[in-house]
Amino acid sequence: MSRSKKWRLEWSFFLGENGRRQYNKLCKGCVHPCKQSFRVVVVSCPHYLSRRPQKCAN
Predict the structure, then answer these.
(1) C-alpha distance from residue 49 to each of 20, 35, 45, 53 (Å)
(2) pLDDT for 9 beyond 80
(3) pLDDT in tens, 11-53
(4) What is the pLDDT of residue 58?
(5) Residue 54 to residue 29: CA distance in whole angstroms
(6) Cα gap 21→33, rounded to integer Å
């Protein structure tokens, strides 16, 4: 298996229509290496904290 074919298979979940890697919009500006694909709907990131206050269920 060629090197580029192996790379493409490993990164196929991250590749967009143009053949380049694309990350989730929350992960684009993040400095941490735990980037997630643009195909992910729910982002679960230990480094991301929303600036909106969380509502308490009281």
Answers:
(1) 28, 15, 8, 10
(2) yes
(3) 888 888 888 888 888 888 888 888 888 888 766 777 776 666 6
(4) 53
(5) 23
(6) 14
Angle (CA) 51-54-57 rounded to 5° is 175
Residues 53, 49: Cα–Cα separation, whole Å: 10
pTM of the model: 0.59
The span from the first CA to the last CA of the chain, in angstroms, equals 57
What tokens were used for 43?
């982002």
φ, ψ at 9 (rounded to 5°): -65, -40
| Phi, psi of 7, deg, nearest 5 | -60, -45
